[in-house]
Amino acid sequence: MFEHILVAVDFSPSWERLKAQLDRLRVLGCRRLTLVHVIASGYTQAPELTHRDHYQQRLDQVAESLRERDFEVETEVCVGLVAAELRRAAREREAGVILAGSHGHRILRDLLLGSTVLDLARQADRPLLLAPTDESVVLPGTRVCRPLLATDGSAAAAGAEAAFLDLLSLCQPGLVVSVGRWAEHSGHDDEQARIQAHVAELAERVPAGAFETLLPGKGRPAEEIARVAEERAADLIIVGKRGHNPMVDLLLGNTAEAVCRNARRLVLLVPDMT
Q1: What share of the chain is helix, strand, coil (3-state, %, to 5)?
Q2: Percent of the chain beyond pLDDT 90?
Q3: CA atoms within a 13 Å half-sphere pointing along the CA-CB vector of 61
Q4: How far apart, in whole angstroms, are the C-alpha atoms of residue 259 and residue 267?
Q5: Fewer beta carbons within 10 Å, N or C terminal of the chain?
Q6: In angstroms, rounded to a whole number, what is the distance separating the alpha carbons of residues 266 and 203?
């Protein structure tokens, strides 16, 4: 999945923080990068936006610096709707993952303005890796060391679970977190037992001790996931999302969207491909 990553390059001030995190992805198997800059359609009043050569030269400079760091690098400059063009380029170039920067808590405001990141989160037909680029975020180390899977055991989480199990061969031990109401309401005991049985089935697919399981029984799921990630030094959170266009879920602030907003670390959002 991570061998070939398409990187969304916007040349904003946060781009340098996103670029600085690329080396962290080597442990996940990343060897090849496709850098894509999209000239947003509808803003032709700024003459520079029509100058493909200008942006191509800037991409080429970035690509050369990354080749010196032993990445295989391709580039593309295109014009159109940003999220749609990134999805098209990823599909045509067969990139396994799209990488974009996330500005943390501002993402909720951006959602109402049609943010590129949230458009990608709604529409992506392949995993979307969000890297924190807010200046207040302290990056935890130079390599990804501990993945955390957030799952409710539903079919929508199957893709995220598969990605997590694959990554355990590269970085472990991992963590599995599922948040329920069993500590607050006795009527949720059956739900806790279902989750425990489901996680036990996942454990049978990997070596013993490959991950630890935590089942917080209270609190808001996204907040509990972020808390556990912080306390247990997990630097990659993996979560599933339903469908290819979960507009309603995102507007209602579901767990996946809230994790993307609040995690302040790498988040891999894996779509339900069923």
Answers
A1: 40, 20, 35
A2: 35
A3: 7
A4: 8
A5: C
A6: 23
Average pLDDT over residues 146-169: 90
Q: How many CB atoms lie within 10 A of CB 203?
A: 16
Q: How far is CA 232 from CA 128, 145, 166, 174, 225, in A?
A: 23, 11, 20, 10, 11
pLDDT at 106 over 60: no
As a whole number of angstroms, the distance between CA 148 and CA 173 comes to 9
DSSP-derived secondary structure for 160-218: HHHHHHHHTTTS-SEEEE---STTT-GGGHHHHHHHHHHHHHHHTTS-TTSEEEE---S
Q: How far does Cα 45 stand from its chain's mean position? A: 33
Cβ contacts of 65 within 8 Å, gap of 6 or more = none
Find the helix packing angle between 221-231 and 255-262, rounded to 10°: 40
In degrees and rounded to multiples of 5, residue 268 shows phi and psi of -105, 115
Domains annotated for the chain, with CATH where assigned, are 4-132 (3.40.50.620), 147-271 (3.40.50.620)
β 266-271/128-132 pair status = antiparallel
Place of tokens 């454990």: 203
Q: Is 141 left (phi over 0), alpha (psi -120 to 50) or beta?
A: left
CB 217 within 8 A of CB 246: no
As to burial, measured by CB atoms within 10 angstroms (0-12 exposed, 13-18 middle, 19+ buried), residue 72 is middle
What pTM does this model have?
A: 0.85
